[in-house]
Write a structure and sequence with these properties.
The complex is a heterodimer of chains A (425) and B (644). Chain A is mainly alpha-helical and 425 residues long. Chain A contains 19 helices and three strands. Chain A has one domain (2-179, 286-423). Chain A has helices at 2-6, 13-34, 48-68, 71-76, 78-95, 115-132, 141-160, 164-169, 173-179, 184-203, 205-222, 229-253, 256-265, 272-280, 284-296, 307-310, 322-355, 359-383, 401-419; strands at 97-99, 102-108, 111-113. In chain A, helix 2 runs antiparallel to helix 17 (322-355) and helix 11 packs antiparallel against helix 12. Classes of the chains: A mainly alpha (425), B alpha+beta (644). The interface between A and B is large, with 44 and 33 residues. Chain B: Its EC number is 3.4.16.4.
Chain lengths: 425, 644
């Protein structure tokens, strides 16, 4: 009986408080970014902040529901949840509503729902379920492929809907698989390919290959036992292949707007006239967002005082570019606070995941942390100009019901699983 | 170890983000600059530009309102174009053309639709303006020149160009700035400081409201009124006398360095550069490359000074103790040096001392003096440097560093100057033309006037300047401190006596004015022009410098009349009359006045462009103005006389 009464209080309150702080601060900034003139009614459904208020209230209902459901339900029904979620993605091709070039929404009454947001949680459940299966051995190539398929299906479906950002999020599962024993060479190869690709784009394929060549042969010269001459040559030829492959991919496969984004990111354009043109066109958002953040200074311009925010200089400021509002109005202090809250939230979830006795809970927890991390990395990195423009929201912070609820589901399923770890055997 | 990959990545990214934030928000953030923030619209409130008065408190320049019709194309509603065009006095084609141009510039921002409406048009239009949505009237301020004189002194204002904006960020597109004269040299004083209103705008450039309820807004600071040293009546009189001539007149008050009159001929009515016709008129003046009305001859005209420069050589000779006032030089109707000969109009065998040398402007006397100066230590190289330094102490050969907007250095040569022509040997005879103010010596009328003022003061001068007073502010100290020349005071008296004799018995004895002791010096300067690639001699320039009265001088003047032949023919008359006008307030030599108004030099100026061979100097006929114009000039003269 004692255990029964205590169960409600075994939720991890640190995670919950961090979650609520982010949601609350997010709402404050959406209010700044989207209000026009005097605010009469916080529930004004014609304004984004009004809708977000409603979304947040509905979130509390959702949390209660999620925590009320038995923890075992999520593991048992994970396959079904996954299949339903995939069907909802496929259904978009028939019933989907096109917004800004992406067919990612269902329109129900006056509301729109974005199933790809929920698919992340479903996939995390499915991956956890598959890896924790006693018959699965992640070192086994066949099992690796099976896992990859689970991840690739939703990734591919959202890519077809022109939602490149969400596709990249599925890369988060690499962290999960690596934690669960994916061979190390995946990591080595992955990092190497990224480095070679960046070098090839920035300095050209020839220079990139030469750099790799010099590094490999120097390494060979000092560690003859670890790497033979033949292996060195093999690595070199592979790098040359990748370098030219990346160049080809960049020039012939990527769409012009994607090329522009990468070119801007790597500062490939030197001509000041063209740079100015870029700032007026596709780099407009980024340029305005950097200016807004920069104008905040140390302590910011103050709540509702940012003139760039008030003047709505940054398009999409209440959604993907919400962090620039924080930058302008709350300054370095506010931004650092947001970064620290996210880091703490992710680390807390990771810490809890490591404590899990059941592999299912641990893998799922890892999935949750990885997905939040990738969103955090890409969104804030993009708004500050550290990585190329990729449109994904900042979890809990950006305006949008689907996103908020999807992350609520993601996090609170884990909180429920965690609260149940005492009952695990 | 595997669990640390994500753990480490999260911490690494956190640190990376905070570093980037530090870079963006603290390191590279230059604080918040309202002026550079493109989210804030800056609306300027222009202050009244200061008025300009002459030395006697007569208003010269004030402001007049001007009205521009502005349009914001997006806000324009269908209108009765016919009525609108009639009100603005434009045709429909022009309406469509202007409207399209405004829309192409920006549909949201205001453009000028019709500029500088007359007061009458404005009065009618104002009543009906509310009928025309999207159009409004913007009031601007233009200059109004009360008397149409002194265009070269007062200058004008015009819109800033992009080069000025780049150099001086105070100015924004469409702002007015002084372009020439007083308007340019006292720009900051006259313009004041504009006020500013900050208005929050959105990314579509629409106004949302005052930024922070206007706490950063500033009020405009009014421009200051200034008094200038010009005597408007004397200036007007000088301009009238110089009508139909080319050249410059500068009159200075020796006891203060104040410029009493500064005439550049030909000139123009300053009012034509204010208002609707400004750019058309300016282009016309600018393109007149023969008469060059925008060229301020009194400040920028660099001429060989001719005989007035003999005064300088006399002073240097006395200071260097190579001559005494009583030493005599025999003139052989010229001066022979080597196998060359410099002509003079003295009779053969005339023995001149210093005073008669100046009185008769004897070339032989000054050639001898010049050679004595240079050969003093048997080293002409060292001699010419000494000579040069003496001359430069009178403000010759360099900018006067005054408050006039333009100027020229002129030229006083020294040994360095001749280095490339005479690299090794250098004798005094090489530069003998400098003795009589020709050759390499070159001065501007203002420099000559200043030299005359220094002689009048017996050895010092004040930098000639044009500012008399600025509301409650002292004029700069550099204008009130004495600049001493290198010539001792006692050497001036014989030279001044010589100048006095010029009027009493010498080259200017026909120019005497009753009751005023004038000291002067005539000058007649040979000059050449290149016509069809041939060096052709033109009629000599007429030059005159003078000051008066001999004791306690009130005015020093230099007059330069291009191609006026000998010194007392044109320049001397102008100088004498202006001296009389300034000292007495009226003139008695009506004969000279009449003569000057009657005679024009336009025929002289037409010669080089006639394409035909022509005679010069004595062989030319005088040209008279026609009776009609003569009457007009007389009428003008009467108007000036009635001002006293």
């Amino acid at each position: 009986m004692v255990r029964e009464t205590n169960r409600h209080f075994q939720f991890d309150w640190i995670t919950i408080i961090l979650f609520l702080l982010l949601v609350g601060f997010g709402w404050v900034n959406i209010l700044s970014a989207s209000h026009s003139g005097d605010i009469i009614n916080y529930f004004d459904m014609s304004q984004p902040f009004g809708k977000q208020t409603v979304f947040i209230f509905l979130t509390f209902a959702l949390i209660i529901l999620l925590l009320a459901i038995d923890a075992k339900f999520y593991e048992r029904f994970s396959s079904i949840i996954y299949i339903v979620s995939m069907l909802s993605l496929i259904g978009l091709f028939v019933f989907g509503k096109n917004v800004n070039g992406a067919t990612s929404w269902y329109a129900i009454g006056g509301m729109t729902l974005q199933p790809s947001e929920f698919a992340k949680a479903a996939t995390a459940l499915a991956v956890a379920k598959h890896i924790s299966d006693l018959n699965t051995n992640i070192n086994n190539l066949k099992d690796q492929i099976k896992t990859f398929i689970i991840i690739i299906i939703p990734a591919f479906l959202v890519l077809l809907q022109n939602d490149t950002g969400s596709t990249i999020v599925y890369g988060a599962f690499f962290f999960v698989l690596y934690r669960e024993g994916l061979p190390k060479y995946y990591l080595t190869i992955g990092i190497s390919v990224i480095i070679i690709a960046v070098l090839a784009l920035k300095f050209g394929a020839t220079i990139a290959s030469s750099i790799i060549g010099v590094l490999v042969f120097t390494y060979h010269f000092f560690n003859k036992k670890k790497i033979t001459l033949f292996q060195s040559f093999f690595v070199l030829f592979l790098s040359i292949g990748i370098s030219f492959g990346v160049k080809f991919f960049y020039e012939s496969i990527l769409k012009p707007h994607q090329q522009d984004r990468i070119s801007l990111w790597l500062r490939l354009e030197k001509d000041p006239v063209k740079l100015e043109q870029m700032k007026q066109t596709f780099a407009y958002n980024l340029n305005e967002s950097e200016k807004a953040i920069s104008s905040g200074g140390f302590s910011g311009r103050g709540f509702m005082e940012g003139e760039r925010t008030t003047g709505k200089f940054v398009p999409e400021q209440h959604t993907d570019y919400i962090f620039s509002t924080v930058g302008e109005e709350w300054g370095f202090l506010g931004c650092s606070l947001v970064v620290i809250l996210f880091v703490l939230l992710i680390l807390r979830i990771l810490h809890l995941a490591e404590l899990q006795k059941s592999q299912f809970s641990r893998v799922y927890g890892y999935g949750v942390a990885s997905i939040i991390f990738i969103h955090f990395l890409i969104n804030i990195g993009m708004v500050m100009g550290l990585i190329p423009t990729i449109g994904i929201p900042l979890p809990m912070f950006s305006y949008g019901g689907s996103g908020l609820w999807a992350f609520t589901i993601l996090i609170f399923i884990f909180i429920k699983l965690d609260s149940n770890r005492i009952n695990e055997w | 170890m595997r669990q640390f990959l994500l753990f480490g990545s999260v911490i690494l990214v956190g640190i990376l983000f905070i570093s980037r934030l530090f870079y963006l928000q603290i390191y590279s953030s230059e604080g918040h600059n309202l002026y550079e923030d493109n989210a804030i619209r800056k609306v300027y409130d222009y202050p009244k530009r200061g008025f300009v008065y002459d030395r006697n408190g007569n208003l010269l320049v004030s402001n007049q309102p001007s009205y521009d019709v502005m349009v914001i194309p997006r806000e324009v509603e269908p209108l009765d174009t016919l009525e609108f065009c009639n009100l603005l006095k434009i045709d429909k084609e022009k309406f469509i053309k202007t409207f399209n141009r405004a829309r192409n510039y920006s549909p949201r921002l205001p453009s000028v639709f019709v500029s500088h409406l007359s007061k009458e048009d404005y009065a009618v239009l104002q009543e009906k303006m509310r009928k025309f949505e999207g159009f409004y009237i913007q009031k601007r301020s233009l200059r109004h020149y009360q008397r149409s004189i002194g265009a070269n002194v007062l200058g004008d204002i015009g819109e800033v160009n992009s080069r000025i904006i780049e150099k001086q960020p105070y100015y924004k597109m469409g702002d007015l700035i002084g372009k020439q004269g007083i308007e340019a040299s006292y720009e900051k004083t006259l313009r004041g400081t504009k006020g500013i209103k900050f208005i929050q705008k959105d990314r579509f450039n629409r106004n949302i409201g005052p930024y922070k309820d206007g706490i950063f807004d500033t009020l405009p600071k009014q421009g200051k009124d200034i008094h200038i040293t010009i005597d408007a009546t004397l200036q007007e009189y000088g301009e009238l006398l110089m009508r139909n001539k080319r050249g410059g007149v500068i009159a200075i008050e020796p006891s203060s360095g104040e410029i009493l009159a500064m005439v550049a001929a030909p000139t123009y009515n300053p009012n034509i550069l204010a208002g609707r016709e400004r750019s058309k008129n300016f282009t016309k003046l600018f393109n007149d490359s023969i008469a060059k009305p925008l060229f301020n001859r009194s400040l920028q005209g660099v001429y060989e000074p001719g005989s007035p420069f003999k005064l300088m050589n006399a002073l240097i000779g006395l200071q260097e103790e190579v001559i005494t006032p009583s030493d005599r030089v025999t003139c052989y109707a010229g001066y022979k040096y080597g196998n060359r000969f410099m002509k003079c109009h003295c009779y053969i065998g005339k023995r001149n001392d210093l005073i008669s040398g100046i009185q008769e402007s004897c070339n032989a006397y000054f050639a001898t003096t010049y050679r004595k100066i240079l050969d003093k230590n048997n080293d002409a190289s060292e001699g010419i440097d000494r000579w040069s330094n003496h001359a430069k102490s009178f403000g010759l050969g360099n900018f006067l560093n005054n408050d006039l907007y333009v100027g020229q250095k002129g030229r006083i040569p020294d040994r360095d100057y001749y280095k490339h022509v005479y690299p090794r040997t250098f004798y005094s005879t090489y530069t003998i033309s400098n003795a009589i103010g020709q050759g390499e010596v070159a001065t501007t009328p203002v420099q000559l006037a200043n030299m005359t003022a220094a002689i009048a003061n017996r050895g010092f001068y004040y930098t000639p300047h044009i500012i008399k007073s600025i509301e409650g502010e002292d004029i700069p100290e550099k204008f009130t401190e004495r600049k001493y020349t290198t010539i001792n005071k006692e050497h001036f008296n014989p030279v001044i006596e010589g100048m006095h004799q010029v009027y009493k018995n010498g080259t200017a004895k026909w120019l005497q004015v009753k009751d005023i002791d004038i000291c002067g010096k005539t000058g007649t300067v040979e000059n050449f022009a290149i016509i069809d690639s041939l060096k052709t001699q033109l009629t000599d320039h007429s030059i005159f410098v003078a000051f008066a009265p001999k004791d306690n001088p009130k005015i020093a003047i230099s007059v330069f009349v291009e191609n006026g032949y000998w010194g007392s023919r044109f320049a001397g008359k102008v100088a004498s009359l202006m001296i009389e006008k300034h000292i007495k307030g009226y003139t008695t030599r009506k004969d000279m006045e009449d003569w000057l108004l009657r005679h024009t030099l336009e025929n002289e100026y037409a010669k080089p462009y006639s394409g035909k061979p022509f005679n010069i100097n004595g062989e030319t006929q005088f040209q008279l103005v026609d009776d009609n114009e003569y009457e007009q000039l007389k009428e003008h003269l009467r108007k000036i006389e009635s001002q006293n």
